[in-house]
Write a structure and sequence with these properties.
325 residues; alpha/beta; 11 strands; binds 1-O-phosphono-alpha-D-ribofuranose; EC 2.4.2.1; Purine nucleoside phosphorylase; Nucleoside_phosphorylase_d
């Protein structure tokens, strides 16, 4: 029997209220220079026991015992609206959980049956631009792990860099480019917790080949091959969208779609041995020409996600059924 969960007050660190993200405080570091709060080495990731408290809170309140987790990207929360025997837990109520502050991210952990398969869903994710350190944006993945999840479906809204991609297309992610990681900003920075995984996890097979094969056959069954691609996702910190020069650089680097999420979750999922299937919905075509007057915006991202929700619900549902076999 799991330990009685402590009250929210006892364990919840100070978090921003919904809609009012905590500002990044500039603090003096040892050398007298300034550094941002989320880069301070002192802010250690939650340890195994702290994450167990969040997991136990959920395990004690849901009858479901899912092995599959789903992270819903911007505007993709409806992926989990049709779960049977649904049980939802607002992030605010879960000890130690961050809160969602972005439009299109509701802020609920939702358990239920998807095509008869028990799943645990994040209806809303966290991003570093909200003021959270990367480890905290990915902390729900560790909660999933302690709930019993061993495979995750990670989804996102992304800008299409590849000029063959159109709004509404799906990109099965075959690899990522971790731009924050190039600068040493990883969700695994700090003392390694062996309870979760090794100090130096490999990432060359981050996106499970067999699950990608399954996805391709699902896409065929659904008859949507023409609008589905396989490609490389690049993560930037945001929240500003990219300049034309940045997008041209990302294209040169081999990126097909760009976003501000997913990579930290995938790194943490792989660190703790989970299988990962991930896809991007292309919600906007990236602006690659300097003479264009267009600009990316979040409203168009949400609208594009909404327009494709039925296909995506079906894709996720069929994948969950295959992953459960
Ligand atoms: O990656 P998700 O959460 O789907 O959201 C994407 O959409 C937002 C920008 O419109 C950014 O948060 C970007 O990462």
């Amino acid at each position: 029997m799991a330990a009685e969960p402590a009250s929210d007050l006892e364990f919840r660190a100070a978090e921003p209220e919904k809609g009012s993200p905590r500002p990044l405080r500039a603090l003096a570091s040892g050398g007298g220079s300034m550094c941002l709060e989320h880069t301070l080495p002192g802010e250690a990731a939650f340890d195994y026991n702290t994450i167990s408290i969040s997991a136990n809170y959920l395990l004690e309140r849901t009858k479901h015992r899912p092995a599959i987790g789903i992270v819903c990207g911007s505007g993709l929360g409806s992926l989990v609206d049709h779960l049977k025997e649904r049980e939802a837990f607002p992030y605010e109520k879960i000890p130690n959980f961050p809160v969602s502050t972005v439009a299109g991210h509701d802020g609920q952990v939702v358990f239920g049956l998807l095509n008869g398969v028990p799943v645990m869903c994040m209806k809303g994710r966290f991003h570093s631009y909200e003021g959270y350190p990367l480890w905290k944006t990915a902390m729900p993945i560790r909660v999933m792990k302690l709930v019993g999840v061993n495979s995750v479906i990670v989804t996102n809204a992304a800008g299409g860099i590849n000029d063959k991609y159109h709004v509404g297309d799906v990109m099965l992610i075959k690899d990522h480019i971790n731009i924050p990681g190039f600068a040493g900003n990883s969700p695994l920075v700090g003392k390694n917790d062996e309870n979760f995984g090794p100090r130096f996890p490999g990432m060359s097979n981050a996106y499970d080949k067999q699950l990608r094969q399954e996805a391709k056959s699902v896409v065929k069954e659904m008859g949507i091959e023409e609008s589905v691609h396989e490609g490389v996702y690049v993560m930037l910190g945001g929240p500003s969208y990219e300049t034309v020069a940045e997008l041209r650089l990302l294209r040169l680097l081999g990126a097909d779609a760009v976003g501000m999420s997913t990579v930290a979750e995938v790194v943490v999922a792989r660190h703790c041995g989970m299988r990962v299937f991930a896809f991007s919905l292309v919600t906007n075509k990236c602006i690659m020409e300097w003479d264009s007057d267009e600009e990316a915006n979040h409203e168009e991202v949400i609208a594009a996600a909404n327009a494709r929700k039925h296909h995506l619900q079906e894709l996720v549902g069929r994948m969950a059924a295959r992953m459960a076999q």
